[in-house]
Design a protein that fits this description.
By secondary structure, the chain is an alpha+beta fold. The chain is built from 16 helices and 53 strands. Strand 43 and strand 44 form a beta hairpin. The longest helix is centred in the middle third of the chain and has 23 residues.
């Protein structure tokens, strides 16, 4: 399901000053208005009354009930007037009002449905100057759920667990027969119903899943939207706004100690003082601190900046010894603000990054207050809290994030200083807080990349302002360059906003499972355009334009084209000259952000089925046929299963019934298609002949089914549950119920099955000698005989298996300290003669996540180890000869490649995200080198 809704059809308003929306009758941008509205009413009432009175333009029939106020802000328009504008004297006497309105459909919030009305008050009169946002006029869905809230929570947790447990890892060893929910390391919290704004709308439960990822210990805070009619997890993305891509894979451990949603109470009666401390750069910084008379100590608590208004603090907290999992979305127990017996803060505050965090937070606060007139992140003088010294389960942690209430800074590592040591990093994280209280850009896909781009822009603008670095300096565009311990700044900077190369042609299409849909990968396309604009217009004007666009124009589901229109409209509203407006246009055009830019992305593949608009649903192939799931063009309909010929001849045919369920994860052998159907009470395994005929229900699961494969009407699958259980089962034509080779014992896990020539293989985690071991088991379906394949080394993790007529293949990790590198191993079908096809210990090793085999070749979904998140480090398809003698890239397409299914010979079909949608594509032979 796409989050990109209602993109603007034109980058710039036409003669009518109205930019229409797509698939909605409400315009996404209207500017240049001077239309009278009630001056005596409250701003929100005036805004809704205006929209209701102008139905012919806005097509909002019930503005009074369908639009609920989110915020209403007012500011003297003189603060926003452009330097040299002719109307600055008049503007100074007036007040600009911005009202944000949340769309509701039959009383239920619409995800990203937000409309903004801008007004101006002067001399007792009020006029509307413009509007923008996304109001979805096509919504028609019923809002009565068919799935219980408990089922939605269970499905959300299970979906998250399944996503994170692609491999079978020792850490997944069962903990108790009773099925302790804590064994999954994750819990779900229902947050109410929402309508996903696709087509007629999808009613969904919003479930927040928290915990730690098995095997890695990575913190998990996922937003999962479960279809309230069928229980299918239709949309899922991470809520953690990290500075860089998530921490690399490594072994973790569970967090300890209770936590709280609220920060510890600050001591009362604090007295503002001035102190000092050494920054990690070696310079001494003057610090705004506070004296605690009750304890007789000084705290890194700035009690002065907001003393005259909200009396809130800028506090810096000692989180040394706390792991990232304890700080994500909650407050770890027992932490306090950094303290000192005198006004000088010593080595501990320096080395942990506390001095830098505190000083930088003050710089960011001052920039927003002095330059842009904003009082703190929420605009109302809210507290600013920074946690420093955070580790990755006692090990180095080189990342930082905003979790919705506070900033969290990692302790750094051998290459990076503590992450608070650079002003642009602190400005970046604090700007996420500003965005959350204004445009609230959804942190996924293009809107998420905008969120990151704006955080980078303001973080770096604050940095160069505080350091007085000229925009002409070659290092001005670097993000995080002051974190470097050993390398030159340009070599270890996290990003460069002035690289001169990032354009829309660099866009990387990825699923939400990868970088939340490319929020970091694609951010510099937009931030680079903004930085070019700042270079040409100067910071004093550019910063005000971008801030006005974020706070008064942008809304949660804006994409790059929408945001371009918002920035240009904000520039016009500030009274800029035509020359200055042309600078804005040129900056975006130079980075390829123009109408229809997505259509220019090229591929080297043959399309079998386009724009599937599906998530977490794979591809099957066999016997010259493919099968895949597809929604409609706007992603609002439950998925249907289709099948077609791998040679592209003929039209795809619908296999599944149109019964309102989600039909997903199909497989085929060219004669039969099998798939899963998500309904309100069960997940069913269905089958149907490719040639047509009756649909059969083969098995019903209360929890869920994955990994389906079929050969000659024998179906193999993996059943999973929310308590950590994974069990492979198979159904032969003569079986009335599935056979589970592991007996579904709670002490044993089996997963990642494959089938060929009457044999099935799967990964197995089983108890032996008081501990757990991992291995690959092969079962002869004719006799029921099971054999364990030889293991050349003791694995700590096993990945997908594959079988052809002569061998069984699997992925194995035997070194948990190498960042997730995997070997490809094969043995005979009798389990003997184990051989390493591709070694994790040799140059060119893969971080592999999936595998499919034919008689001639095996194809991997793999990433190559990389210190940067870029196209080359995304999941790509690599094909090897079955003996490892040949190694080639299947396709040179940009973007993510996933869910491969082997055809005959060297042909592969897969889901490709290069064009920004999800397309089923194929190649008959690999592309070779790219």
């Amino acid at each position: 399901m796409t989050l990109q809704a209602s993109p603007a059809r034109a980058a710039d308003p036409g003669p009518s000053n109205v930019v229409p929306g797509q698939d909605t009758a409400t315009p996404v941008l209207v500017e240049g208005l001077r239309e009278p509205v009630d001056a005596k009413a409250a701003p929100a009432d005036a805004a809704r009354g205006y929209l209701a009175a102008n139905k012919s333009r806005y097509k909002i029939p019930r503005a009074g009930s369908d639009l609920v106020p989110v915020s209403a802000t007012a500011a003297g328009s003189g603060n926003s007037a452009a330097p040299g504008s002719t109307n600055s004297a008049t503007a100074a006497k007036s007040t600009n009002e911005t009202v944000r309105l949340q769309q509701k459909h039959r009383g239920v919030d619409v995800l990203g449905g937000q409309y903004v009305v801008r007004m101006q008050k002067q001399d007792g009169k009020r006029v509307v100057t413009g509007t923008s946002g996304h109001y979805f006029t096509a919504l028609s869905t019923d809002v009565t759920p068919q799935v219980s809230e408990d089922v939605a929570v269970h499905r959300a947790v299970a979906a998250t667990a399944r996503r994170l447990r692609a491999a079978l890892d020792r850490s997944q060893a069962p903990r108790s027969e009773s099925g302790d929910p804590a064994a999954t390391g994750m819990t779900g919290e229902a947050r109410g119903l929402v309508v996903l704004p696709s087509g007629g709308g999808v009613l969904a439960y919003r479930v927040t899943v928290r915990g730690t990822a098995p095997g890695t210990g990575t913190p998990v805070v996922d937003e999962v939207y479960v279809d309230a009619r069928t229980g299918y997890p239709a949309l899922q993305y991470s809520a953690l706004k990290t500075m860089t891509a998530p921490q690399a894979r490594t072994a973790g451990e569970a967090a300890e100690g209770p936590a709280s949603d609220d920060p510890p109470a600050a001591p009362p009666n604090l007295v503002p003082e001035t102190g000092s401390g050494a920054r990690l750069s070696g310079t001494t910084a003057s610090l705004d601190i506070a004296y605690d008379p009750a304890a007789g100590t000084y705290l890194l608590a700035d009690a002065g900046r907001m003393r005259a208004t909200s009396k809130s603090l800028l506090g810096t907290w000692d989180a040394r010894g706390k792991s990232v999992s304890e700080t994500s979305g909650e407050w770890p127990s027992g932490i306090t603000m950094f303290s000192s017996p005198n006004t000088t803060f010593g080595t501990a505050a320096t080395d942990s990054g506390a001095v830098d965090a505190h000083w930088n937070a003050g710089q960011v606060y001052d920039f927003y207050k002095t330059t842009l007139g904003r009082d703190s992140l929420d605009g109302r003088g809210g507290a600013v809290n920074s946690l420093v010294g955070v580790t990755y389960y006692g090990r180095p942690y080189a990342n930082a994030f905003w979790d919705g209430t506070k900033m969290v800074y990692g302790i750094g590592d051998a290459e990076f200083r503590p992450m608070s040591a650079d002003t642009d990093v602190v400005g970046h994280e604090m700007t996420h807080g500003v965005i959350e209280h204004t445009a609230n850009l959804v942190y996924a896909g293009q809107s998420g990349a905008l969120n990151e781009a704006l955080a980078d822009y303001f973080g770096n603008a604050i940095d160069v302002t505080a350091s007085r670095t000229p925009m002409s300096d070659p290092a001005a565009g670097l993000i995080g360059e002051n974190l470097c311990r050993t390398k030159a700044p340009a070599d270890c900077a996290l990003r460069d906003l002035n690289d001169g190369a990032t354009t829309s042609k660099s866009f990387l299409g990825v699923s939400f499972a990868t970088d939340n849909g490319g929020v970091h990968l694609n951010s510099t396309i937009f931030s680079g355009a903004l930085w070019d604009m700042r270079e040409d217009l100067g910071g004093a004007l550019a910063d005000k334009i971008v801030y006005k666009a974020v706070t008064e124009y942008m809304t949660p589901l804006d994409g790059f084209t929408d945001a371009r229109g918002a920035v240009l409209a904000a520039a016009k509203a500030m009274g800029t000259t035509s020359g200055q407006q042309n600078v804005v246009k040129r900056s975006f055009s130079a980075h390829g952000i123009v109408p229809g830019w997505e259509q220019a992305l090229g591929v080297d593949t043959d399309a079998l089925f386009g724009k599937l608009n599906t998530t977490d649903s794979g591809v099957g192939a066999g016997g010259g046929w493919w099968t895949a799931s597809k929604s409609n063009d706007d992603g609002s309909e439950p998925y249907s299963v289709y099948a077609g010929r791998l040679d592209g001849r003929g039209a795809p045919k619908v296999i599944s019934p149109n019964d309102g369920r989600y039909h997903t994860s199909p497989a085929t052998d060219g004669r039969t298609v099998v798939w899963t159907a998500y309904g309100p009470t069960s997940v069913d395994v269905l089958s149907r002949p490719v040639a047509g005929g009756p649909i059969k229900t083969l098995y019903s699961s209360v929890t869920g089914v994955a990994g389906l494969r079929v050969e000659k009407s024998t179906v193999v699958f993996e059943e999973y549950d929310i308590l950590g259980g994974r069990h492979v089962g198979y159904l032969r034509p003569t079986d009335r119920t599935p056979v589970f080779p592991d007996g579904k014992k709670w002490t044993t896990l089996t997963a990642l099955p494959s089938i060929s020539d009457g044999k099935i293989a799967y990964a197995k985690l089983y108890p032996q000698g008081g501990s757990y071991r991992l291995g690959v088991e092969v079962v002869d379906l004719a006799t029921g005989t099971a054999v364990m394949a030889e293991q050349l080394d003791e694995p700590v993790s096993l990945g997908q298996t594959g079988v052809n007529g002569t061998n069984v293949f699997w992925l194995a990790d035997t070194d948990e300290s190498d960042g997730g590198l995997m070997s490809v191993v094969r043995s005979g079908l009798d389990g003997r003669g184990a051989h390493i096809v591709s070694s994790e210990r040799k140059p060119g090793a893969f971080i592999a996540s999936d595998l499919t085999v034919s008689q001639e070749a095996l194809t991997l979904v793999a990433q190559t180890p990389d210190t940067r998140y870029r196209n080359e480090s995304l999941p790509k398809l690599w094909q090897l000869a079955t003996d490892g003698s040949r190694r080639e890239r299947v396709s040179c397409n940009r973007g993510e490649q996933n869910y491969p299914a082997a055809g005959a010979g060297r042909q592969v079909a897969w889901l490709d995200a290069t064009t920004g949608s999800t397309d089923l594509v194929t190649r008959e032979r690999p592309a070779g080198s790219c």
